[in-house]
Amino acid sequence: MRVRVQLYMLIACVAFCLPAAAQDVHTDYDHQRDFSQYHTYSWTKIHTDNPLWQSRVQDAINNQLDKKGWQLMPSGGQVSLSAVGAVRNQQEYRTFYSGMGGWGWGGGFGTQATTTVDNERIGTLVVDMYDTASKQLVWRGVAEDTLSDKAEKNQGRLQKSVDKMLKDFPPK
């Protein structure tokens, strides 16, 4: 019985930790804006912590906008794009209780607790689109995901983030 309860506790801990690793993508836009008037775009700024990622971010976004029928122009596009990528460390605290001592006079659960601290690298990508003529922000996408130590995995995560970010673009 005691082993079964510990197993359930371990499964619950794993289940609660998994959503923290999920990709998070949000978009917002000017709801008064008619996006059917836009067909061309130009890049104004792209910045990432690692310069190797600048072209990767730009290529991922260009590929999606190309699929949407938008044309990249060296300058003077109807929409001006900027993208900023950043990496930060986030600490995750995980506590595992061993032994099922139950509740005592002082409260608490279990007889031993082991807490570990995991450092996770979180990548964030912010993509902004401005109406070039008015210089007004018309669309913003933000993606956040846990990064791997392997560049190939992170490239896949970047592509999935951009795909998800631009899935319903342009807004109707």
Task: Record keyword descriptors for this entry.
Double Stranded RNA Binding Domain; six-stranded mixed β-sheet; disordered N terminus; 6 strands; 3 helices; elongated; 172 residues; single chain; alpha/beta
Give the averaged pLDDT, no decimals: 82
Strand order of the largest sheet: 1-6-5-4-2-3
Q: What is the H/E order?
A: HEEHEEEEH
Our estimate of the beta-strand percent is: 35-45%
How many discrete structural domains?
A: 1
Quote the distance from N terminus to C terminus: 57 Å
Count of DSSP-assigned helices: 3
How much helicity do the residues have?
A: 25-40%
CATH topological fold name: Double Stranded RNA Binding Domain
Low-confidence stretches: 1-21
Give the helix/strand class.
alpha/beta
CATH class: Alpha Beta
Largest sheet: 6 strands, mixed
Q: What gyration radius follows from the Cα positions, in whole Å?
A: 22 Å
CATH architecture group name: 2-Layer Sandwich
What is the number of beta strands? 6
